[in-house]
Structure formats: structure tokens, C-alpha cells
């Protein structure tokens, strides 16, 4: 089994070039993130962009993403989030979707398989995995060795009510597939714009910060944005197990970060 390094970058929320979101320029943040990845993680086996690539699905935002990705040295894969728009995404990245129209992939990394799921459901903030997508996963896990699953919406509740309401809907369907195979070693999600980790049905999971804006740790009340610095995850998997690091990266538009 190879020792591998996967980078997870999430929730870019790109708007049209020059635009701002929550007080920062998401495109500048992406550029800073890619520069940091090239500086420190050009050896990564895979960089996974786990959805909410854009804030509103504008074709110009996807076009900006495509040009910035051309500078990324490591191989990468893109995923869909609830803020994305399937048609606009496909117009810019026509090879990303499978024959069934969903943006899912199984990437063989030598003893490890990164399985990327598509939880985007038009018109819904929460995530969905329909029978078609779960059926694909069922097939992908056969002979996958040690599987690492990436999906935009966490299936697990993280104790923040304003976010838990929009996690993966009907997660028991996913749990049943995972139970059937028993070879999924870790789940990785985005969507919540903050780092959380734990176990779900006995399988470890982790979420990661956004490259743009974060969620406050609010155990009650409405959702609150926080201005903690952006970060990506560095996932190391090898013979003895898996470790997940959270790594902040330098930003030209640094702040001040007002804090929480
Ligand atoms: Fe997001
Ligand atoms: Fe999201």
C-alpha cells in the first residue's frame, strides 16, 4: 500500500472576477491557496476541490476557476456543492461528469481509492444521494481497496443546528452502502466552512474550512459567519493509518480577521 498525500480544498465560493463576498475576494484567496500548494505540496497525489466552487454558478466564475487551476502543479479533481450549477459547470468542465450526468469519480492511488461523490441537488441547500448515485458508489467500492470518500455535504451532524439542517439528507442510504463493503477508511466533507472531526457509524470523518469565509461555532441560534483565516486539509494515508492536518495559508488580502 502506497503512502499518499491528498489535499482537500473546499468552498471557494467564487464570484465574478473583481467581486467580493463576506468582505474578501474569493478569487484572490484561491490564487493564494494555489500558490501555497505549489510551494509546499507540489508532490501531492491529488488535490480535491470539494464543492461550492462558485457562489452562484456564474459561467464567468467557472471560467476564472479554470484559468487559475492551470497554474496548479499537482493533479486535481473538482466536485459539486449546493451553490454550484450543473449546466454552467459542465460547460466549462465538460469531462468532469460521467455518462449519468453526475460528477463522481474513483481515483486509484495505489492501494487507496479516492471516491468523489456528487451530492448537489438543484433547488436544495441540503445534499442528496439518489439511487443512481448510491448505485454508482456501490459498484465503485467493489475492489476499491482502502477507500477514502469525499462528498460536499457531511452525512454526520456536527452539533451546529444551522448547519446540521442542511447536511446530507437521508444519510442512512449512504450508511447502508458503506456497511455493505466495509472498506471505507475515512470520509471528508466540505459545506460547513469549519474544521470538525469525529466518527459516523464507526467511520472517521473530517470537514475543512473554506478558502473564503468560515462558520462560527454557534451551538444555538442562526448561522453566523466568522472571519477566521482560510485553510486547506493535508491528508496523509499510509500503512499505519490516516492523519489529517489543517493548514492555513498566507493571504494578500489578509485582514484584519476580526475573529469570531
Ligand atoms: Fe460553502
Ligand atoms: Fe455548501
TrEMBL record:
Family classification: Belongs to the cyclic nucleotide phosphodiesterase class-III family.
Listed InterPro entries: Calcineurin-like_PHP, CNP_phosphodiesterase-III, GpdQ/CpdA-like, Metallo-depent_PP-like
The organism of origin for this protein: Ancylobacter oerskovii
Listed name of the protein: Phosphodiesterase
Entry keyword annotation includes ATP-binding: no
Pfam families in UniProt: Metallophos
Keyword Zinc tagged: no
Domain of life: Bacteria
Domain Calcineurin-like phosphoesterase: 4-194
Keywords attached to this entry: Hydrolase, Iron, Metal-binding
Lineage: Bacteria, Pseudomonadati, Pseudomonadota, Alphaproteobacteria, Hyphomicrobiales
SUPFAM superfamilies: Metallo-dependent phosphatases (SSF56300)
Amino acid at each position: 500500500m502506497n503512502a499518499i498525500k491528498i489535499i482537500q480544498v473546499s468552498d471557494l465560493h467564487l464570484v465574478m472576477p473583481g467581486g467580493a463576498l463576506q468582505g474578501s475576494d474569493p478569487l484572490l484567496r484561491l490564487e493564494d491557496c494555489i500558490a501555497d500548494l505549489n510551494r509546499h505540496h507540489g508532490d501531492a497525489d491529488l488535490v480535491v476541490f470539494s464543492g461550492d466552487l462558485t457562489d452562484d454558478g456564474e459561467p464567468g466564475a467557472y471560467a476564472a476557476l479554470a484559468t487559475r487551476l492551470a497554474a496548479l502543479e499537482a493533479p486535481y479533481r473538482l466536485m459539486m456543492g449546493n451553490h454550484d450549477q450543473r449546466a454552467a459547470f459542465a460547460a466549462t468542465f465538460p469531462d468532469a461528469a460521467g455518462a449519468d450526468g453526475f460528477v463522481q469519480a474513483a481515483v486509484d492511488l495505489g492501494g487507496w481509492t479516492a471516491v468523489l461523490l456528487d451530492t448537489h441537488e438543484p433547488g436544495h441547500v441540503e445534499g442528496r444521494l439518489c439511487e443512481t448515485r448510491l448505485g454508482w458508489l456501490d459498484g465503485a467500492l467493489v475492489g476499491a481497496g482502502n477507500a477514502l470518500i469525499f462528498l460536499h455535504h457531511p452525512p454526520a451532524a456536527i452539533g451546529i443546528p444551522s448547519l446540521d439542517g442542511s447536511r446530507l439528507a437521508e444519510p442512512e442510504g449512504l450508511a447502508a452502502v458503506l456497511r455493505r463493503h466495509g472498506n471505507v477508511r475515512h470520509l471528508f466533507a466540505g459545506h460547513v466552512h469549519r474544521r470538525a472531526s469525529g466518527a459516523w457509524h464507526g467511520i472517521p470523518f473530517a470537514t475543512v474550512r473554506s478558502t473564503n469565509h468560515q462558520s462560527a461555532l454557534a451551538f444555538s441560534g442562526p448561522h453566523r459567519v466568522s472571519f477566521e483565516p482560510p485553510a486547506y486539509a493535508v491528508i496523509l494515508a499510509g500503512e499505519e493509518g490516516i492523519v489529517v492536518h489543517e493548514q492555513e495559508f498566507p493571504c494578500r488580502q489578509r485582514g484584519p480577521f476580526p475573529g469570531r
